[in-house]
Specification:
With about 220 residues, this protein is an all-alpha fold. It is built from 10 helices and no strands.
Length: about 220
């Protein structure tokens, strides 16, 4: 902790420490989501997390969904943990709780906000899947015009020219007509994580021209 403090709780040492903390707690948080314990902890902390019965059932049957929600709340918690517990000094070795326990308490405090964001993302994903057949039909109809297809390809390349990983290789592989599952495997990503990354990219560029300004 003295070494982390000397580095200002930033830089490579912080990245190593926080990465190990997140990896070490992810399994526990996923189990607590599945069992409902984290919902109870959030309630006890005065920040109840509510989900529809359908989304609660989705969490129970889908490990990828639990992984996504756990990752979201862990990332939110580690930012607050850094500022409050470490920078502001709310945690101390003599306070009765070790670092991991203190961090998991932060997870419970952040669970409500993370759950709302995750639920909104799931509802949006469901909506996109329901309308996907119409969008696919429209894409195929437009692709029958070779000039429209060429324009679309050039626009996509322009939008992704300065994109970071994994968007740029995703664009290149999609242009080679790779399937989403194959793209995720090639990039060593979980299918849901790859899907969410692509969804964020398409939302970002929707309504924008190739110069990045609203069209």
């Amino acid at each position: 902790m003295a070494m982390l403090r000397q580095e200002g709780f930033s830089g490579p040492m912080w990245d190593l420490f926080s990465g190990r903390l997140l990896d070490g707690c992810r399994g526990t948080v996923m189990k607590w989501i599945e069992s409902g314990r984290l919902f109870g902890m959030a309630m006890d902390a005065g920040r109840p997390a509510t989900l529809s019965p359908a989304l609660r059932a989705h969490l129970l049957r889908d490990e990828n969904a639990r992984h996504d929600l756990a990752s979201d709340v862990l990332l939110a918690a580690v930012r607050v943990f850094r500022e409050r517990a470490l920078v502001e000094g709310q945690w101390s070795a003599s306070g009765g709780a070790n670092l991991r326990t203190f961090f998991l308490n932060m997870v419970a405090l952040q669970f409500s906000n993370a759950t709302r964001a995750w639920a909104a993302s799931e509802r949006d994903r469901e909506h996109q899947s329901l309308t996907g057949e119409i969008a696919q039909w429209e894409d195929e109809r437009e692709a029958t015009n070779p000039y429209r297809a060429a324009d679309a390809r050039m626009e996509l390349e322009a939008l992704g020219r300065h994109a970071a990983f994994p968007i740029r290789p995703m664009i290149q592989l999609r242009q080679l007509e790779w399937k989403p599952a194959d793209i995720a495997e090639a990039l060593d990503m979980k299918p849901r994580a790859a899907e969410k990354a692509w969804g964020r990219f398409t939302k970002q560029v929707r309504g924008q021209g190739t110069d990045g300004r609203p069209s």
